[in-house]
Amino acid sequence: MPRRVSIVPHTHWDREWYEPFQTFRLRLVHLIDGLLDLLERDPSYTTFLLDGQMAVVDDYLEVRPEAEDRIRALAASGRLTMGPWYILMDEFLVSGETIVRDLQMGIQRGAAFGGVMDVGYLPDMFGHVAQMPQLLRLAGFEHAVVWRGVPAVIEKNAFRWEALDGSGVRAEYLVVGYGNGASIPEDAEALVRRISDHEKEVGSFLLDGMLFMDGTDHQEPQPWLGRVVGEANELQDEFDLEVTSLASYLKRAVAQDLSTWRGELRSGARANVLMGVTSNRVDVRRRVAEAERALEKRAEPLCALLLPAEQWPSRLLELAWTQMVRNAAHDSVCACSVDDVTDAVLERYAEARQIGDGLAEQALKAFSRSLAEPGPVVVNPSAHARGGTIEIVLPGNSAPPDTQGLPEEPGAFGIPRGLGALTLDAPTVRTILGMLPDGSQIDTHTWIQSVSVAEDETGIDITIGFGSEERYDVPISTIKQDLYTRLGAHPDSVVRIRLDQPPTQRVLARVSNVPGFGWKPAEPEKLSNPVTIVEGDAAEVVIRNGLVSVAVDSSEGTFAVDGLRGFGRLVDGGDHGDSYNYSPPLSDQLVDTPDSVSVSISERGPVRGRIVIVSQYTWPEYVDGSSRARTGEQKVEVSTTLELCAEERFVRVSTTFVNPARDHRLRVHMPLPTAAPQSIAECAFGVVERGLEAEGRADEFGLPTFPAKRFVSAGGLTVVHDATTEYELVDIEESDGARRAHGLALTLLRSTGMLSRLGMSYRPLPAGPLTPVDGLQLLGQRVEANYSLCLSCDDPYRMAAEAIGDLEVVYAPGGGWRDSSGSSLEVEGAEVSALRRVAGVLELRVFNPSDHDTTVTVADRSGWVVDLRGRTLGPFDGSLDLRPFGIATLHLV
Ligand SMILES: [Zn+2]
User: Ligand 1 center to residue 93 CA distance, Å?
Assistant: First the structure.
């Protein structure tokens, strides 16, 4: 029997990478112009795979809208296959929700062309998250196609890939990548030789036929494909060549007796996983997280719960998510691109965040007006009932008990609070009027309460009363029109303005037990564990709250948590790598000792205490290209603020500095309470356990640095961080044949100047063009890293919600219909990933992050369990049993 060789013509379209989007799109338009002609003209070119991402179609149609019918016709006849994704994302650097929305956007867009390819095509991602098989199953797919990350233990071209919950797909393994059949030769003998050589290369992997992927990065179709395949079949009977689609190939592929792999795919055994992208542009990582929080944790839940269904801002959210999904492209979010690309990525994230935060503010404002009683109210946008520290503005000028006064802010228009008076001439007043908005809100906490205008022969008198209560019934625009009229009639008059600003104060207060997705009056509560600061001898300052104690060692600039010393140790080393991989210089030089340290106290409790450690370091300036050694000297001041709040068991740390040097990696090291052989880190829809090693090969060193989405735990230490962060377990000791780590390092900055580099010690071959990219150095940029530490954390999800997410405070004017405390939705037993409206229906997505069964309850709600395409799986009435690591989407009525 001849071996069947299934040739799948395709192109892999990196939308932006070593060229910006618009430059690559010119090439895309040229490619698809030619492809459509080719497919229509030559029936032997039976099919073409448009890279599994609908963005390729949309990007083309934006330029050639007239081609839509041709594409639809070719898709309908199976000649063009497209989707299921909207974009080929990176799986580790975006949220689980972004992966889901990407898939849903792709499926929805593909529906306009007769549907998407039913294959989880994942050709170029830098490894794969553990829950991907479950997501694919929940969208109705039975197949994945993968390349990078597959471990050495997989020795065939297919395996059963299981998610953490045990659900699985058949994974086709592209042993040498998605371009094994790229650039098909024009000559039939050459083609047969090529296939024969490839069979020798991967023959031991082949279960049956050979999948020959005819395409690679931005490759144009080869018009001779049909002819040369026909001729090659005539020429020999060793191989039976066909031009086919991926789905047709998979339909016939061997699916029995496959070996099984459960969990994430991050091995560098046969292909680069490029693990260093996690830490290459830490500013991008922060912007991703901010935008994800604005949309997923603020705008969607607040709009879903606090606004009437008909006010759901679907189009604005769609625009924001489109930016998020476009940015999720593996070369985009991974920042392994030229600076034009990363600039565009940052701009898209800024837009998504602006939409998210703006919608959240609108929902909160509408909510505040719905409340019956006036006054400040705290709103909890998360599912966890929780407490927290809030900032509120109260009348008067002395902080009540159990609160902490904050520095006074200037009053309206920058004029000090109290009674003020000023006299202006008419032209100045006209200019000021022209610049004022028509609303009564002056700043976050100040509204105009009243305005009175009087006039006599000596001039115009205006009296404005301000207050901290929201007013929207002061007729500001009418008053402005009246003033314009008066000023026009008397252009020489004097205007005397009286400002009446009663004293207010900003205070910090603690509130507790704010219900999940609920609210209550923002009343300062009695502190059981207030923060105190003790200044002992010259070398030590201690901040504590009865639950945790933090002692600063002012000689080294480090600190101890509950007596465990050595937190906050900064270690700066060389990095002669590139955007893809860290690589130490030939001659490294580590700096972990500051030249000098100063410690000051900026807040003293009782609600919040803050200690600022300022350390001066001398770091080498760059890695010299010829000696490959760190060279030169640069002074840098690193400021680390330690913050402890009343009633909290964790300490917040914020480190910031202006990066003075090139070619280096800065990490913060911390001790583990007990030595650990593994870490547990958050990934999309769950947690993943990792050991101390990573599989690699000569072409890519198996560096055991890993991404953690919001938290990582090891040896009794839990670290929550506000952006995806690279970590590594360090200080490894071997005893009794077991290896254990004593420390954990978080990467705060990796500065490199090359998109890809040649001859690196950790990855000798290039992974992309050898292009200098200055932005990767982050030189002269302010770097900020925020994380929280806990030695007694029993629920890292709860800690992440409290350490990263803020409680919201609104000021109700009173007169609405809603009770002053309550909850819109009570969800227990699982983590909430999304809460939004879909076609008017409240959609709730939950997951079980634990390895035991759980019962999810949604009090007083019923509806349906649906899949990721919105298809009903069964009824839901108040509660649902959810398997370990299971994901479920509910439509609630
Ligand atoms: Zn790619």
Answer: 15
